[in-house]
Queue: 3 jobs
Job 1
Amino acid sequence: MIPDTIIRPHAELAYAHELEALAAHDDRPRPANWRLSPWAVVTYLLGGKVGKTDIEPKYYGQRRLIEIAVATLATDRALLLLGIPGTAKTWVSEHLAAAISGDSTLMVQGTAGTNEESLRYGWNYARLLAEGPSDKALVPSPVMEGMRQGKLVRVEELTRLPADVQDTLITLLSEKTLPVPELNTEVQARRGFNLIATSNDRDKGVNELSAALRRRFNTVVLPLPATLEEEVTIVQNRVAALGKSLELPPEAAPLREIQRLVAIFRELRNGKTEDGREKLKSPTATLSTAELISVVHQGQSLAVHFGDGELRAHDLAAGITGAVVKDTGTDTIVWQEYLETVIKKREGWQDLYRACKELE
């Protein structure tokens, strides 16, 4: 049982019943230390029906991309999930780890301040001073634990790691060995160990991967949703799932408002209206699906706590403006032009136009 006080349980807990059902019906070959076969992992990610259990889709997109990702992890090659923010890279990596290893918690979060110890190991300095280097004084990293246990390890935002820290992975991925010279020993990876890294290909100021490190990865690019309908479905499902933990009623997010919001984001992102008849300027923001979901949740909260409980245009207006206008110079102009040339003229959208104009 997951405690009601947990906002976001780990994937292996939140979807334990699905993983158990898949394991019970999975009679296909499994790589060493995998909880499920590659076929069952793909079914878990993309959805289906196993026995009497409905498997909820975790990812909406091309099946082949997920198949390639899973097949990569069944080899000795590491997997790099690449894409702009909001294309479900972290979401996919978490669910892959949950389905394959039954544990999505072995994770290193890449930042400019992440040091080499996060990928290798550290020390309990009190014990180190008292006893000297020893197994008890060693503090294993998630990577070391993954190697010992034969599990998947996740490295989020790989290109945010400093270049010298990135290069620590070269030996780990090539030799599948982590030397511990202080103890004159090493940790050798058990079968089942592999690494899933994610990287944002549009962020500025990141540390590019060296050619040597890039060769250690198979890269899968996760695209934005192909159609408006597909993106609406993603937003609906994620809003419903997250709304349960935040105790927001499902009726607080009408389909019509989600459709309008998705249309706005897609048109500004693509630089043209959905029918392709009119070209538009695009803002500096990426306007990802993840931001869409955040705007809906903010609007839901406003509607529930300060309105009549139903999401309306004036609940969404502030969130839309905040998502679009990241650079107050250029983005403000882009947003104002879009309001006047598209939203103002669109039939049935006058309430949204007025709500956005009132915020100026």
Job 2
Amino acid sequence: MKVIFFLLLANFACPLWAQSAANVPKAAQKTNAAEGLMQIKGFQIVQSREGQCTLCHQIPNHKGVMGNLGPALDGVAHRLNEEQLRLRLSDSRKINPLTIMPPYFSTEKLDHVDPKFAGKTLLNASEFEEVIAYLKTLQ
């Protein structure tokens, strides 16, 4: 089951470069240029092959195919504070050991990892922070 799930993750969603700032929701467009850029990049990652969030979640303003295994992300910042968002995104197994959500910023206790990806997180530190910045806009 894990192998099939990760094969699906690896072969779904649009590439990051195919996204544009025009698709960014108004809530993610801030006056602070650096913060706004982080939120735009976060929105792009969430929709992309790198983020893979659309496999399981409904994403506000995403025009492509989306899954419904996980909760819709619309209003997630209202339901969860920043610390809770970070925990769930970094490694949801710490909340629910049986979760199907992949750990995006952890390499602990992973089985059957391709050697070329061993010791690497799904998102790097910058991407992780950009996704958190975007999710915080989803009131």
Job 3
Amino acid sequence: MSNETIADGKYVELTYKVIDQKSGGVLTQVEYPLGYVHGTNEVLAPAVMSELEGKAAGEVIEVPIDCSKLYGPRDESLVITERTQDVPEEYREVGMSILMENEQGQTKTFIVTHVDRRSVIIDGNNPLCEREVIFRLEILLVRDASDEEIEYGGKIEQGPDLKDVEGVTQVPIN
């Protein structure tokens, strides 16, 4: 195991869970490693990113977050109830994200939170709004980032080699 610690310019891979402090239930989790270059891009809340500094691969940390400070208070004007028949069928599924735009051209994501035969409820509040959660992070890898990774903000994935596939012409991407 490497003894490198997380600092600016380090490539980091981790997984995490967001746990509701009241119920202990897992609200969301990332099972596949999330890779990023520390100090180059912010992939998680600033309070979580700062707690990662100085940690090493193999460590598991827990960071309590009051989501009211991140997302503000719940805004009931962002909860919309529509008659089911007025909502396109593809949006009648709980958990569906709907990107909406206001008259000024600003966009906001709303989530379908309830569907029955009479109504569909969509909510523009962040699902973590007014919750107290714990980010439980498992650090899998810490190493120096390459110049290319620093520029890109994360790991550079190689696409499949298609040069020998008949009928396929590869074009370099700049």
